[in-house]
Amino acid sequence: MLQQINSGLDRILVGVDTGSLWMARAGGLLILLTVGLVTTEVLSRQFFGRSGVHATEITGYIMAISSSWAFAYTLMRKAHIRIDALYLTLPTSVRSVLDLIALLSLALFCILVVGAAFEVTQLSFTGGARANTPLGTPIWIPQLLWLIGLAWFGLAVVLLSLRVLFGLLSGNMEDVQRIAGSPTLDEQVAEENRETAS
After folding, report:
1. Could you tell me which of 61, 40, 59, 60 has the C-alpha nearest to residue 50?
2. pLDDT of residue 41
3. CA quadruple 70, 74, 116, 12: dihedral, nearest 10
4. What pLDDT is attached to residue 53?
5. Nearest alpha-carbon partner for 16 in 140, 151, 143, 114
6. Contact 93, 173 (CB under 8 A)
7. Which of 54, 151, 190, 195 yields a CA-CA distance of 20 to 30 A from 113?
8. Cα 92 to Cα 190: distance, rounded to the nearest angstrom
9. 135-182 tens-digit pLDDT
10. From residue 159, how far is each of 6, 62, 89, 131, 140 by CA, in Å?
């Protein structure tokens, strides 16, 4: 039974990983857009003495949106910062339990953040809030895009937490380490070699 749950969650996590990759790529394209906007604004101020691009406002929205869209990808690829000097000296079973505790803590944090972000977005939408800027952007639009990234991240954390929990219950500690554990230096080097070779 646990094996079936684990393999089902693995299939779902492959989809989450793919979706996270595309969201991170979209965030990267948005950042490239900000480069174009800022360049256009600088050049138009230099040559025409003024600019109608409003890059400062738009780039602020884009930075918040693209960051939230990259959170899930960072988690799925284990690219987030970890302080693991002591962690790597512990037995695999202890590390696996610590990974579950860390993921559950992150899941609780995500629930609180997504709930608050949803309320803020809903209030902006129902109240017709607009930015106090020349563009007068309806604030709910960038907030909704930001919320989508946060919600996707929350979904990824919850699914990963469930996978680690069921992996622990099935007693497969190596599997838990593969999914959520902090990689050792040897594993990082092996991963770099694999990526370089392909």
Report:
1. 40
2. 84
3. 100
4. 67
5. 151
6. yes
7. 54
8. 19
9. 889 999 999 999 999 999 999 999 999 999 999 999 888 888 888 888
10. 11, 27, 27, 36, 28
Is the separation of the CB atoms in 159 and 9 below 8 Å?
yes
Which residue do the tokens 């339990």 mark? 97
- Please give the pLDDT value at position 198: 67
| Predicted pLDDT of residue 72 | 96
Place of tokens 């803590």: 105
Q: Which residue stretches of the chain have pLDDT < 70?
A: 52-53, 184-185, 198
Give the residue extent of every domain in the chain: 2-79+89-197
Amino acid sitting at position 32: L
pLDDT of residue 106: 94
Task: Report which of 183, 176, 162, 184 is spatially closest to residue 99, judged by C-alpha positions.
Answer: 176
Buried b (16+ CB within 10 A) or exposed e, 71-110: bbbbbbeeeeeeeeeeeeeeeeeebbbbbbebbeebbeeb
Q: Which residues are 138's β-sheet partners?
A: 130
The span from the CA of 100 to the CA of 137, in Å, is: 41
Structure tokens at 197: 């070779």
